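If you are new to this repository, start here. Below is one unmodified record pulled from the training split, so you can see the exact layout before writing a loader.
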Amino acid sequence: MNSWLQDNPGIFRLLHFLDWSVHHPIISLILLVFVIAILASIIKAIIRLIETASWSIIQIPLKLLLAVLQLIWLLITKVSRLIIYNVNQTAKTDSLPTLEPTDSSIIATDKQKRLAEISQRLTELKQEQEELLQEVTILVAAKPQKVNFYKDN
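And here is the target side for that same chain:
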């Protein structure tokens, strides 16, 4: 034992300090109070750790249940929106009038009439555009005049 204490001088000094404190009762009492305070704080820390861990263990199933309920609610709302959208779409298609089958020659002549009307309208628009461009060039080429916005009194 003596050789072990010589190999570990830190432990030897600690034992020497404890021996000295035992022979002085006031210092012994102060050391005892410090040791009790340190042990009490260690015990409180362990209790707090156990309490936190147990609350976490209790909360995990509740959080999981909440997540599952939120997922179910999200799925229900998406499915209900999809159903409402489909119902609205079928209502719109049901309200559309059905076209009777007609002769293809009538449809072709209607298309030709419409194409002729569109062509005529495009020609008129082109002519109007050229007239407006000529007016713009005249206005731009004209000498700018000073405009007085205030009335002379």
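Two things worth knowing about this chain: Residues 25-95 form the longest helix (71 residues). The chain has two domains: 1-93, 110-139.
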